[in-house]
Amino acid sequence: MSDLLATIPLSAIRVFEAAARLKSFTRAADELGVTQAAVSWQVKALEQRLAQPLFRRLPREVALTPAGERLARAASEAVGLLRTALADLTETGEGVLAISTLQSLATQWLAPRLGGFQLAHPKIAVRLETSSRVIDLNHEPIDLALRGGDGQWPGLETHRMFSSQGTPVCTPAMREQLGGLARPEDLLDAPRIGNEGEWAEWFEAAGVTPPQTRRGGLRLEADLQAIEVASALAGQGVALASPILWSGEIARGQLVRPFPTVIDYGRGYWLAYPADRRRSPKIAAFRDWLLKVLAEDPLTATVSPDR
Predict the structure, then answer these.
(1) Do 156 and 275 meet the contact criterion of CB atoms below 8 Å apart?
(2) 3-state SS class at 29
(3) Which residues form a coiled coil (predicted)?
(4) Which of 113, 184, 225, 284 is the most buried (most CB within 10 A)?
(5) How far apart, in Å, do the first and last CA atoms of the chain sit?
(6) Segments of 50-191 assigned E as strands
(7) What is 165-265's CATH number, 3.40.50.2300, 1.10.510.10, 3.40.50.300, 3.40.190.10?
(8) Is 253 exposed, middle or buried (0-12, 13-18, 19+ CB in 10 A)?
(9) For the whole model, what pTM was predicted?
């Protein structure tokens, strides 16, 4: 076995790992900057050395054989470890820190605070990418992510930031238009924005029997809190919003909270990065800064402990 391993070039493993992950020789060639023929040749040479097929060639893609699946798991882990080791050897704590996060989390929470990180670490430039897509942190050129979910992502180390919550918010003018909203029951006849199930949950938490059907209000097909709050800011009704994410609008008086009841959706926002990169200087610097900010903020200081 050791003799066989010595005859297989590392380049062949790298090409195989890309083709297995992308399920395409063409896409692997594009990622590696070589021709599709070069990828096909490397894979074929590897199969000949192993004396068994690793891929089934299909009309528009390739599929792994059982042997290919076993090798792909090992190759992916090996390439990841090599990438991490090389990064650790060459990283100096400077350079670019690439962060992926949700648009609402970036604009409502991270961006107003990011200047503090830049002042504390002037040699680290931050590249912020906003996307609802779950980034593959083990293979894409992103260092860490701030994302929503349950924090259970294989291969990633996670730190809970704060819970995903909802509490009624509206403009001061809308509150006056609705008679001041003295009791939670007053929202039963109010134009409510957002998900009916979440509103029913809030009414129950506030001790009010939820309505059987929605009366008026705006139904949004995409249950995106940022869109709902934008509608509330435009004076279209009352929305359920995170008192943490929209604390700025509340503090400035653009939004008011007529009632203190808050529901927890059972999810949360998390800092996530590859577990094998936990010692990366730039990742460690951002992690330590972020956890310190969370611990010092009265709105987030009581979040659940890290996993």
Answers:
(1) yes
(2) helix
(3) none
(4) 225
(5) 40
(6) 55-57, 62-64, 95-101, 124-130, 144-149, 156-169
(7) 3.40.190.10
(8) exposed
(9) 0.68
Mean pLDDT of the chain: 87
pLDDT for residue 217 is more than 70? no
Confidence of residue 79 (pLDDT cuts 50, 70, 90): confident
The percentage of the chain sitting over the pLDDT mark of 90, rounded to a whole number, equals: 64
- For 106-157, how does the pLDDT look when each residue is reduced to its tens digit (9 = 90+)? 999 999 999 999 999 999 999 999 888 888 888 888 999 999 888 999 889 9
Residue type, 303: V
Domain ranges of the chain: 2-90, 165-265
For domain 2-90, the question of CATH label 3.40.1170.60 is answered with: no
Residues 6 or more apart from 134 whose CB is under 8 A from it?
Answer: 147
